Each structure stands twice: as structure tokens, then as C-alpha cells.
Request: fold
Amino acid sequence: MKEYFKRSGLIFIIAGVVTLAITEFNKVESNKMLIISGGLIVFGLIVYVILNNMLD
Reply:
């Protein structure tokens, strides 16, 4: 269970990448979706680093 919790930040990173891909393929010209996907990627990276440092 600890291993799954350590990798929970990857869920946010993957969600951000999927959001970015959907935005790109649908030719959406809104910066709101780009900001959301970028925020998810950065948040996921921060969560991943912090949880790995805390749980090791």
C-alpha cells in the first residue's frame, strides 16, 4: 500500500498530460485548459517528490 501511495503524484501528472493532449487534438484555443494541464503536471511533480522524501 505504501508503494501505491508514493506514486500518487503520477496520477496528477498523467491527468495533466491527458488534458494537454485532448486540448491539442481538439484544437481548443483557450488558455484555461493549458493552465489547468500545466498546473496538474507541476502539482503532481511536487506531490511525487514530497511524498517520496517523506516516506523513505
User: Anything to note?
Assistant: Residues 31-55 form the longest helix (25 residues). Residues 2-55 form one domain. The chain has a mean pLDDT of 90. The CA atoms of residues 6 and 52 lie 6 Å apart.
